[in-house]
Design brief:
heterodimer, A: alpha+beta, 33% helix, 23% strand, B: 394 residues, Peroxisomal Thiolase, Chain A, domain 1, 3-stranded mixed beta sheet, 11 helices, globular
Chain lengths: 264, 394
């Protein structure tokens, strides 16, 4: 089975690749990454009082989600969404585990409801007023590829554009030795059914065995800046999008299966 | 591409009421609750829980020791029940290990293992040696374990949208099968008791100090439970109940409170009925989300009273199992399938005086009657809603 979808909007955020324009230029080798890391993006969709206390997951996910929608020209509230994160909010997990080990009855109710894997998706839907379904998934080292496949599958099955958002944050405390991830990294694309889009740029997705489609390594100067983030496997995909010529890459989906991605 | 009905060729569940379909059915018939006074952890809060007995003394088989933790033990208990492993392996042999997808739902996965590690950190703050296994400290612990336990090698995803998780797995699996990315799918969900949910829901003042009483005017909140459930979905098979449709939506309202008019829930219901090509009057039974929280039950009762005829029977089975969170979708899907198979529509345990919002649809007592179509509602934190439609084998 082949899935064909158009790419209508792209966004990317890491502290030294703050935004798709900078990230794309660095990936194309046209400019050096900024020396100074950028501050965490502010989730302007949220009420001012909520912005400061929003978890990192929500801040980075909402930033890339909003920018991808802007780039696509689509109204956020019209789009179903797929939110993918390897470890979810590992900083809150560290807080929950530490507090439970010492003073369990003092668990913060806000931290608890922000600990769910779908917190970023929930805040996005509240902030945009979107009643369209969202999902929140994880697939360990295959998270980015599985999420991309789910978003493309939804676009094709339901014949409507879909927002795909992937993110991982810096893990904290003892948990950081198990759920390894450094820095903030978020990336998003709006995918649309190929027959419904004005966009020429699109993806042709097929599944193959890993033997036939060996996962593509990251090659650009951006790679070392995000290598320690759990979502680093997304980088080869964005390197291909950064290039203006047609390219093909492979993203791992499991130990034996890969996603062949042709970008025209 | 329209969604297509799928056959459910095997299914199972394990909860506080027992292991497997027969034990669950007996508990439903006998109106025997699995709830007990909370004894989980060193300083239990005053509430009731749906605890699965014996998990502490049942480590995973040596070949799966890498994944050992309470949540995966419960997953294994489920897989080993009602011949589910055999059915899944038979599907693997028939379709190929790459062609059977795994789509699992959970809310907290094996966070209990991380919680335990934090109580036994070594003097320099590191994990104890026996828990230095990264896979049990990440949400995909469940999906990864189930895939390995069944010897599968294709797509494997963990859906974590709080209490709608293992309802939404049916939708995702249907799409994978519809597009030809898989020929069959193992769907399901597992959530196990842990400090995060007990103390977390306690901090939100949502847990009841007594056995939960869904839809009762004097209900005082939820009881947390743990459970595992699985189903095998196939495009074609000579027999088996049907997944006729599903609907997904969200409320866009609040992180931990449902929309007051059930706006998202209504959208999910409409979507589900449309896919199944059914009308409300075609629905014989609804397994409601019915958590016994003030808000959920009020909103859900209104929705059912507004939209369904009096011939539809609706109930919450959380008085038997407790609220099993990310496993609630699959547990209640399995109970709905049992209801259709046995023509036994369970009532609502612990319901004495119905909330004034309840219509005549909401049943206290079990009903034995002909039933062809059932719905299962799952609504979660972050406003995520899922409605499933099942049809009797025909």
């Amino acid at each position: 089975m082949t899935l064909r979808v158009a790419i209508e909007g792209v966004s990317f955020w890491a502290s030294r690749l703050p935004g798709w324009d900078v990230a794309r230029a660095v990936m194309r080798g046209e400019q050096a990454p900024p020396e100074t890391p950028s501050a965490r993006p502010s989730p302007t969709l949220l009420a001012p009082t909520e912005r400061r206390r929003a978890p990192d997951t929500v801040a980075v996910a909402l930033e890339v989600a909003a920018r991808a929608c802007e780039a696509s020209g689509r109204k956020p509230s019209d789009l179903p969404s797929v939110f993918a994160s390897t470890h979810g909010d590992v900083a809150i997990s560290d807080y929950m585990c530490s507090t439970l080990a010492t003073t369990p009855t003092l668990i913060s109710p806000i931290k608890f409801h922000n600990s769910v894997h779908n917190a970023a998706a929930g805040y996005w839907s509240i902030g945009t007023g979107s009643l369209a379904p969202y999902t929140a998934i994880s697939a360990y080292e295959y998270t980015f590829g599985e999420g991309l496949l789910e978003a493309a599958t939804q676009a094709v099955c339901e014949q409507r554009p879909v927002l795909y958002v992937a993110f991982d944050i810096e893990s904290k405390g003892a948990l950081s030795t198990m759920a390894r991830s450094r820095g903030l990294l978020g990336a998003a694309v709006v995918l649309a059914p190929a027959n419904q889009s004005q966009q020429q740029r699109g993806l042709i997705l097929t599944t193959e065995s890993v033997a036939e489609c060996h996962p593509t390594p990251a090659r650009s100067a951006a790679a070392s800046l995000v290598a320690e983030n759990a979502l680093a496997p997304c980088l080869p995909f964005f390197e291909v999008l950064a290039s203006s010529s047609p390219r093909t890459l492979c993203l791992a989906l499991s130990r034996q299966m890969a996603l062949n991605v042709q970008v025209n | 591409m329209q969604s297509r009905p799928l056959r459910i060729t095997a299914y199972t569940l394990c909860s506080a009421v027992g292991d497997g379909r027969a034990a669950t059915l007996a508990a439903l018939r006998e109106r025997r609750s699995g709830l007990s006074a909370n004894d989980f952890g060193p300083s239990p809060i005053a509430t009731w829980i749906g605890r699965v007995a014996g998990l502490e003394a049942q480590p995973l088989p040596a070949e799966f020791a890498h994944w050992d933790c309470r949540n995966n033990r419960l997953a294994w208990r489920g897989l080993a029940t009602d011949g589910f492993i055999e059915a899944a392996r038979e599907a693997r042999d028939r379709y190929g290990a790459n062609r059977v997808a795994v789509v699992m739902g959970t809310s907290t996965s094996s966070i209990g293992a991380s919680e335990e590690a934090y109580t036994r950190l070594d003097p320099d703050g590191q994990y104890p040696a026996d828990l230095r296994r990264p896979i049990v400290h990440t949400p995909h612990s469940l999906g990864d374990f189930v895939q390995h336990a069944l010897g599968l090698t294709g797509l494997s995803v963990t859906v974590a949208t709080a209490c709608s998780s293992s309802g939404k797995v049916f939708a995702q699996a249907e799409r994978l099968i519809r597009t030809g990315l898989a020929d069959a799918a193992i769907v399901g969900g597992v959530d196990s008791l842990c400090g995060s949910v007990l103390f977390g829901f306690n901090s939100l003042e949502l847990v009841s100090p007594e056995p939960c009483r869904p839809f009762d005017v004097e209900r005082r909140g939820i009881n947390l439970g743990e459970a595992a459930g699985f189903a095998l979905l196939e495009k074609q098979a000579p027999s088996g109940a049907w997944l006729l449709g599903y609907g997904e939506s969200n409320d866009a309202h609040h992180m931990s409170t449902p929309h007051p008019e059930g706006l998202g829930a209504r959208l999910a219901l409409n979507d589900a009925l449309k896919r199944a090509e059914l009308r409300p009057e075609d629905i014989d039974y609804i397994n409601l989300h019915g958590t016994a929280s003030q808000k959920n039950d009020e909103v859900e009762a209104k929705l059912v009273a507004d939209l369904f005829p009096t011939t539809t029977c609706a109930s919450s089975t959380k008085g038997w199992t407790g609220h099993t969170l990310g496993a609630a979708g699959i547990v209640e899907a399995a109970i709905s399938l049992l209801a259709l198979e046995q023509q036994l529509l369970p009532g609502t345990l612990n319901l004495r005086a119905p909330d004034p919002a309840c219509g005549p649809q909401i049943q206290r007592d079990n009903v034995q009657r002909e039933a062809r179509h059932a719905l299962s509602f799952s609504f979660g934190f972050g406003g995520s809603n899922c409605v499933l439609v099942f049809g009797r084998d025909r």
